[in-house]
Structures are given as C-alpha cells and as structure tokens.
Amino acid sequence: MTIDAAATQSFSHSGRLRNVLPLAVKNALLSIITLTLYRFWARTSIRRRVWSRARVMGDSFEYTGTGFDLFRGFLISLPCFFLPAIFVFYIAPFVMEPVVAVWLTLGFYLVAVPLIAAARFWMRRYQLSRTRWRGIRLGLAGSGWSFAFASWGWSVLQGLTLGWYTPIARMNRARMLWENARFGDQPFEFVSDPEGDAKGLWWPFALGWFGPLLAWISAWAVSLMAAALIAGSAPKLLTQIQQPATAGAIGVAAIILVLLLSLVFWLLFWAPYRAAAMNKIASLIRLDGARFQLHAKTWSLFGVTLLGWVIVILSLGLLAPLAGLLQVRYVMNRLELIGTPAFADIGQNIVEGPRAGESFADAFDLDLGVGMI
After folding, report:
1. Cα(274)–Cα(256) distance, integer angstroms
2. How far apart are CA 22 and CA 29, in angstroms?
3. Which of 38, 36, 129, 31 is nearest to 356 (CA)?
4. Per residue in 128-138, is it b (16+ CB within 10 Å) or e — as a string?
5. Among 86, 210, 243, 299, which is 20 to 30 Å from 8 by CA?
6. What CA–CA distance (Å, rounded) separates 310 from 192?
7. pLDDT of residue 367
8. Beta-sheet pairing, 131-133 with 136-140
9. What is the pLDDT of residues 47-101, one digit of tens each?
10. In angstroms, rounded to a whole number, what is the distance separating the alpha carbons of residues 93 and 100?
C-alpha cells in the first residue's frame, strides 16, 4: 500500500490517577481481606479501566479478559512454580543439609531465568488475545519456550560480557515478540536497521552501566554540599548536631539520605538508555506498511519512573497499578502511527488465544497489575 507521509495518527490516554485511585484502593482492601485471592479480579477491573481510556483514530481499546482466566492460570502454575518455590526457600533450609539446600536454591534460580522469559511471553500472549480495537482481536503466535530458551542464551551473553550485550539482547527480544504479534490476521513486522538494531543505544547504555558508581559519587557530592551550606548558614545548628547525643542519629539519617539519593541518581542515569531503547523499538515496528514513532524523553521518563517507585514503596506495593497507569499513559500519549493500514482488509485473528491466564507472570508481577508494560 502507499503511505501518505502526512497521515499521522496520535495515540492518547485520558486516564488520570483520580480515575484509578478509588478502584485501586478498593482492590487493595479486598485483596487483603481475601488473603490476595481477589487480586485476579482486581487486575481485570484495573485493566478494563486503563484499556478503555487508550484511544487511536477516535476509537478506544477494549479488554475482554476475566478474573477467572487469571485464577485458572494461577491454578496451573501452582504445582509448577509456587509450591516448589515454597519448598526451596522455606522448607529445604530446615530439612536438608545446608550444602544441598544451597545447591537447590542455585538450581532454582537457573530455572527461574528462562521461566521469567516464558512468563513474559505468555503474559503478552494472553493480554493481546484479550485486547480488541474496532472489534479486531490482537494475538501472539509462536512458542513461549522458544522465546525462553533464546532469552536464556542472550542472558548468558549478557553475563559473559558484564552486561554490554544488553542493548542487542533487548532488541532481539523485542524482535521475537513483535514478529509473532498479530492485529487480526495481519502480522506486525520488525524491520532491521541497516546500521544495526542497537545503533544509538551504546552511549546511553554506557551511562547506565557506570550508573551505580556515578550515582554513589553524585549522592555523596550532594550530601557534602548540603552539609557545607548548613555549616556556612547555620554554624550554631552544626554545633548542636555534633553533640554526642545527636551525632549517632544524624549519622544514620545521613547514610539513609545518601542511599536514597543514590537510588534516585541511579534511575536518572538509566533513563537515557530506557528512553532511547523504547524509541528505537517503536521505530522498527510496522503494520501493513505503516510505522510507529515514540517520543520518550530522558527527564520526563525519569520523572514518571521516580513517581511510580515512590507510589509503590509508600503503599507497600498495594497501589502498584497507579505506577503502571503512569507508564501506560506516558507511552500512549507519546506514540504515533505514521501511515494508515488498510483496516478494511484486515480479517479477524486466526491465532487461537490461551484459555487460561498468565500463569507464572502472576508470581513475578511483571506488569504491576496493569498489563501491556
């Protein structure tokens, strides 16, 4: 098809924290009362709320999943993951020899690496199969285990290169997911950049790779500057702080402050790479010749990420869907579709969706309870 360069359609998301906060609080309370059993229906209600506020070309998305789907997926994963995990971490250390228990734990972690990748694939497949736009269902073909073993190999390369293979691994994972994605019977494409899919990611990644050291140095620099300002503007206060009765407490508070600042700076130093990778992945996706474009920026992404973490930490994870909403809204309000696919020629999806929910993904909470992150 011929693409009109001027035909640019912007995605949008009209959701606000006030739209989701009452529902998130109700879900959190019901989950506590039911000893987390209600979380499957809580996720469903949040997703329907979030999906319905995402729009493109005048039409909103629709989420058709059910809480029972997710609960059934949990029942499938219960004997395969949850019960073995309980044994490995809570029973084995007390009933087995220490050396055997340690080796068992290490083995469990080795299995968990590909399992997390498979869980991500199954989660995406379920969510796409329960997502409709203009009545057309999305889907994901392929094998979760194939994705898991490929991802495991890329993880090994990441370890052998001390993390420097990460940009290539991230693009490889994105390619495998998007090449199997479908909108109706129309497959998505993930085109190759002639200069390399990871072009433009190396310098931002280098900043993130050195981020822990830079964050620690920056945190101490800011703390020392603050102490110097206090000493210069309020010398009497500094004298009181140095008294033995308060010096210990002030020292602990200073260490906590440095750690918190280190985490904030760490998020900041990773933000350029995260924004660049998100933009790069979006630019390589095609649907019937139309392409996508994302305008993620370092500072805005850092702000959304930091606010999300603050919400998760202060609410002890109970209001994590609010952080998920921030991420979904951030992406949707910066995403564009350049060109117009021939929607009238696209038929219904022929890829059969899973009957059960996300299974192992529930164990790792890969989407903050919101989905499609």
Report:
1. 27
2. 11
3. 129
4. bbbbbbeebbb
5. 299
6. 37
7. 63
8. antiparallel
9. 999 999 999 999 999 999 999 988 888 888 778 777 888 888 888 888 888 888 8
10. 9
Q: How far apart are CA 208 and CA 170, in angstroms?
A: 15
Tokens describing residue 224 = 């020392």
95 alpha-carbon distance from chain centroid: 37
Number of C-beta neighbours around residue 192 at 10 A: 10
At residue 135, what are phi and psi to the nearest 5 degrees? 80, -5
CA dihedral 369, 145, 71, 47 (to 10 degrees): 30
Please report, as a single letter, which amino acid is at residue 160.
Answer: L
pLDDT digits (tens, 9 = 90+) for 10-50: 999 998 888 899 999 999 999 999 988 898 899 999 999 99
- How many residues in total does the chain contain? 373
The answer for residues whose C-beta is within 8 angstroms of residue 195's C-beta and 6 or more apart is none
Q: In angstroms, how far is CA 106 from the centroid of its own chain?
A: 25
Q: Return the structure tokens found at 272.
A: 């350029």
Indicate the SS3 state at residue 138: strand
In order of 241, 254, 256, 270, the CA distances from 251 in angstroms are 10, 5, 9, 29
Cβ proximity of 71 and 350 under 8 Å: no
Give the integer Cα–Cα distance in Å for 191 and 297.
23
The DSSP string of 251-303 is HHHHHHHHHHHHHHHHHHHHHHHHHHHHHHHHHTEEETTEEEEE---HHHHHH
- Please check whether residue 74 is in contact with residue 359, taking contact to mean a CB–CB distance below 8 angstroms: yes
In one-letter notation, the amino acid at residue 11 is F
More confident of the two residues 356 and 289: 289
